[in-house]
Input
Amino acid sequence: MITLLTDFGTADYFVGAMKGVILSVNREEKIIDITHEIPPHDIRAGAFTLLAVYETFPPQTVHVAVVDPGVGSSRRPILVTSCNYLFVGPDNGLFSYVCEREKEVRVFHLTNDKYFRAPVSHTFHGRDIFAPAAAAVASGVAPTMLGEQITDYVLLPPIRPVRGRDGTLAASIIHIDRFGNCITNITRPDLADKAFARTSRLVVNGNEIRSFRQYFAEGADPSEELFAIWGSAGFLEIAAHCRSAAQMLNADRGDSVLVKSAL
Output
């Protein structure tokens, strides 16, 4: 199985061309679209979306991710392998978050043009390198046949929050979804539910969030306040019932989120 995640949209021929190349290698290959609506050139949004979804697929799925503002430049095309999954795309940090989570990660620089589509366009590596390489790997070609292993691949800053000496957890907003929910990089091991609900508060852009909910409509008046909730991707989110928390907080991705002990 091969999945596709890109910033290509669906109005142009790009996604269809990638699928055509994959099927030209193996007509029986199953291709699943994750999304093609990653904001253009937004590597961090692509990295988060891939992290949130890749483990829902069966082991040995090949995930092709293409958010590639450096296409045609010196940035390398790569294949990432782990215990359970494979990833194909540009070496620009797009696979950073899955590399943090996965075990036994190995990265290969794709150099064997035997497995590329000819001629290779300088503007469409998704079609000419990533799609045929993914099809080859899904068909059983060993990663070592596609290129040499490398260790100097590009990584984004670690996604994990940092705990200060005073116990304050310094986190950040790593994604804002279409509903305006602010997804932080805080996971359950960072913060126990009961400890948060009873003894902690979140501080974002000078606003304090003290309420913790198990579901969006919880409470007598669910729309009256901002609250924190464990989201489906496993991260703590700041939300508001039927309203945009991002607008209420005037928040953007990258904004600081501090978790402090309640006074």
About this structure: The first strand starts at residue 2 and ends at 6. The chain has two domains: 2-150, 162-261. The domain at 2-150 is CATH 3.40.50.10790 (Rossmann fold). The chain has a mean pLDDT of 93.
